[in-house]
TrEMBL record:
It is found in: Cell membrane. The chain crosses the membrane at residues 25-48, 60-79, 99-120, 141-158, 197-221, 242-262, 274-293. It comes from Sciurus carolinensis. This is Olfactory receptor. Residues 41-291 form the G-protein coupled receptors family 1 profile domain. One of its GO terms (molecular function) is olfactory receptor activity. GO terms for cellular component: plasma membrane. Pfam families: 7tm_4. Keywords: Cell membrane, G-protein coupled receptor, Membrane, Olfaction, Receptor, Sensory transduction, Transducer, Transmembrane, Transmembrane helix. Belongs to the G-protein coupled receptor 1 family. It is a multi-pass membrane protein. It comes from the Eukaryota.
Amino acid sequence: MDVGNLSTVTQFVLMGLSDLPRVRLPLFVAFAAIYHITLVGNGAILLALGTERKLHTPMYYLLANLSLLDIFCPSATVPKMLHDLLTGEHSISFLGCAVQLYFLVALAGSEVFLLAVMAYDRYVAICFPLRYSLIMTRARCVQLVCGTWAAGFLNSLLHTVSTFRLSFCKSNLVNQYYCDIPQIVALSCSSTYVAEMLVLVVGGMLGISAFLSTLASYVSIISTVLRIPSAAGKRKAFSTCASHLLVVCLFYGTTIFTYVRPSSSHHSPARDRLVSMLYGVITPMLNPLIYSLRNTEVKGALRRVLCGGARAQQAGR
């Protein structure tokens, strides 16, 4: 192939749901509502945790970081998706695509690592309750959280550089509503071996390590809970990690369904992209609902924040 006759890609076209135009406006309304609920829900969690002094503990400090990630992660893709659904325009610049991919991978990776840290926190609390305050000190907690963010962003930098150093001279149609590594690499007209190996080896190793760490923590937690003689003690111990366990199952369940499920000839590419959309917006919306409904301390803090705000408005009148 004569490379000199090929034009260089300067922008990409995000396919999104362009081949399902009849559902474009209903989807805009639905996803705008979901995104709004996500921002309000996670913002309320942050406000409640920040104002309630008794919740200034390692467990809730980690929860606050999860809420931040649940705000930032959909914000990397959903505003652009809503713009495309509303206007029918689907183009994104080369630099814009690189920036979107960088933050998306960084924030998603940070969440994987943070879930592992949260599982470790519950492991220490249940398996070593008398030593919990000595192990999960404020300094240790800050170090772990900084490590999760740093690991996510450094890992993303590696993948973003390796992906966008490729030559793009084929089609510029991205088979997704956002810029993601597999779809961008598929458009390259140069060797993709290094980029694919980095995803497989580095990304796979970090992701599997975080998953196995989370799994090992909960295997130990369940083993410890089952050895508690009283039913009341078991319920109390399990209640301290039930919300996080639900969040972990939701996160990995939707991830596996989105990326690992076999493609079906009965489903159009647009239907598969719709599943990806749901994965990207539903999980961040449900996380604050899970914690506010199942965690009595968070529920109480939210109630006091909302009641305090209502009283302040009445006093102002």
